[in-house]
Amino acid sequence: GPLKSFLPGPVQPFPGVPSPPTDESAPGGPNDTPPRLWSIDQGRIRHTLTGHTNQIHGAVFSDDTQRVITGSHDRTLKVWDLSRGYCVRTILCYSSPNDLCMTPDGATIISGHMDAKIRFWDSREGRMGAELSSIHTSKITSVSLSPDGHYVLSNSRDNFLKLIDIRTNEAVKTYSDINDYQNPSNWAKACFSPDGRYIAAGSSKGCIVVWDTQTTKVNTTLMGSNPHASNPITSVQWHPHSSEVVSCDNRGYIALWE
User: Fold this and answer.
1) CB within 8 A of 156, min separation 6: which ones?
2) Does residue 187 contact residue 15 with C-beta atoms inside 8 Å?
């Protein structure tokens, strides 16, 4: 489609760039420098969020777009007030976070970590509410909230994806495929379909595996005339209003699937 806005400067997205609830702002910036919040309409920087001392690998907007939470390999989460561009809370999170998500009410931040643990945080007080240490056996690469807000999908270097009921903090479904699915990186992102019926994840084998959420069976594997060839697919995102899926591989190629 046509280019909507060009954001100039030395910008590359950090691995966990979130989709804002509106089209007004987008975060970006090399992951070894402070993240920047860009005005999409104006094509310029609104805020430079200075405070982390190491690479940033995850971020999430609050639903009201007034806050963004960033996670860094300095082992902290930071809550930013976007009306002023100030950090209003720093949370020490014990291990480097690879990805973040937030419950719809904005009360709880959920983070997946290098130490294979998933942690739940009170966003207002900064306290840890729960720590899940037995869900996975290797690094957590992504955490994604289900469309109904009741479940978290976790992805891990142990090559399993888990569906976690956040009301009980228990894994209720497990997804894997020994033939086609192998987690490609420490920041590999999985996702839900907009209706929550399917989940998708990119593989180190250059394909996308799609599972039925309820049955846990593989629904389809996207490959064929694959534009990614054999490049590991590190990020997958479903279009919020259609059946299209966009993917990105470790060489920077982006593909759109129908």
Assistant:
1) 116, 136, 137, 138, 139, 140, 141, 162, 183
2) yes
CA 72, CA 54: separation in Å to the nearest integer? Answer: 6
**Cβ partners under 8 Å of residue 187, min gap 6:** 15, 16, 57, 98, 99, 141, 142, 234, 235
204-226: pLDDT as tens digits? 999 999 999 999 999 999 985 55
Tokens of 147: 């469309």
Please report, to the nearest 10 degrees, the dihedral formed by the alpha carbons of residues 170, 184, 76, 8 taken in order. Answer: -130
- Is beta strand 128-132 parallel, antiparallel or unpaired with respect to 56-61? unpaired
**Where do we find the tokens 């976690």?**
164
pLDDT level of residue 11 (50, 70, 90 thresholds)? very low
Q: pLDDT digits over 50-68, tens only?
A: 888 888 888 888 888 788 8
CA–CA separation, 13 and 28 (whole Å): 5
Q: What is the pTM of this model?
A: 0.84
Output the CA angle 196-119-232, nearest 5 degrees: 60
